[in-house]
Amino acid sequence: MTLILFIEQMLNGLGYGLMLFLLAAGLTLVFGIMDVMNLAHGSLFMGGAYVAAQVHTQSGSFVAAVLAALVVIVLLAVLLEWLLVRRLYGRDHLSQVLATFGLILVADDAVKMIWGPAPIMASAPAALSGPIQLLPELPYPAYRLVILAAGLLVALGLYLLVNHTRVGMLVRAGASNRPMAEFMGVRVGRIFSLVFLLGAALAALAGALMGPLTAVQIGMGEEIIIPSLVVLVIGGIGSIRGAFVAAMLVGMVDTIGRAFVPVALRSFLPPTLVSDLGPVIAGLATYALMAGVLAFKPAGLFPARG
């Protein structure tokens, strides 16, 4: 393992962690404040990826594609919150899981009807298709650097929103003690709608940015929602700070595990066994991290509810 390879994988892990943060931040706010377990959050991520890929292909403008994904998914979230989600407030978590799981099936079929069952390839902007020389022996894709910058800017914006604005104060109050916030006159319905739309926008942004790095396909939302739930549990439900720290940990552990565990296994195992065993061990590293954190802090690293 060379130092250059290690730095490259650390940057990849940071980028993956920031995209997980965009998803997990919305998910932890929705669950922490609204007490609604929305398994269909990943479907919003998938929708953002598909809309951005379609608009980018037709218009040639990646900025327009990202903006279109945000607008379409937020409008869809408005309709979704009005028709279904607000009817889940106060319901037990089993009802919420069943209802939102049904939304996953509906979303997958809707995507199949509109775009077909085959994956589609989303291209990065032409201006960002090449590498940037970070170090003499480390060329790094320009688009991945843009993702790093975008993720950090969104994380900073969320921090300022939650910790230094009146809306953020109400959000934190609802996450810490919702009955008391209602008693103090907070318009919980409006806060719920705002939080749900903010979560949808973050999911759409993550999908639009991740599309050029992966195949845009049916089921991509279900694949990303599992590590997002791991981030939610590790960071503490309702905590933006916890979601950020946990996303960074999960991104680093997952990326470094997949890059270096097979290399380490090759020193004492046959290649055929390494090809089967390496990805499994690397995949388990994230869940081992979650188990280790919960063994010492069962409520997560930074739980919003004391």
Word description of this protein:
- By secondary structure, the chain is mostly helical.
- It has one domain (3-296): ABC transporter involved in vitamin B12 uptake, BtuC.
- Helix content is 74%, strand content 3%.
- It has helices at 3-34, 41-59, 62-83, 93-115, 142-164, 166-176, 178-183, 188-210, 220-235, 240-265, 271-296; strands at residues 131-135, 138-141.
- The chain has a two-stranded antiparallel ribbon with strand order 1-2.
- Strand 1 and strand 2 (138-141) form a beta hairpin.
- The longest helix has 32 residues, at 3-34.
- It is globular.
**Integer tally of domains:** 1
CATH topology: ABC transporter involved in vitamin B12 uptake, BtuC
Describe the biggest sheet? 2 strands, antiparallel
Distance between the termini: 43 Å
Q: Could you tell me the strand content as a percent range?
A: under 5%
Number of helices: 11
State Rg: 20 Å
Q: What is the N-to-C succession of helices and strands?
A: HHHHEEHHHHHHH
Instruction: Give the spatial strand order of the biggest sheet.
Output: 1-2
Poorly predicted residue ranges: none
Under the CATH scheme, the architecture is: Orthogonal Bundle
SS content category: mainly alpha
Keywords:
globular, single chain, 11 helices, two-stranded antiparallel ribbon, 306 residues, ABC transporter involved in vitamin B12 uptake, BtuC
Brief rundown of the structure:
This protein has 306 residues and is mostly helical. The chain has 11 helices and 2 strands. Helix 1 packs antiparallel against helix 10 and helix 2 packs across helix 9.
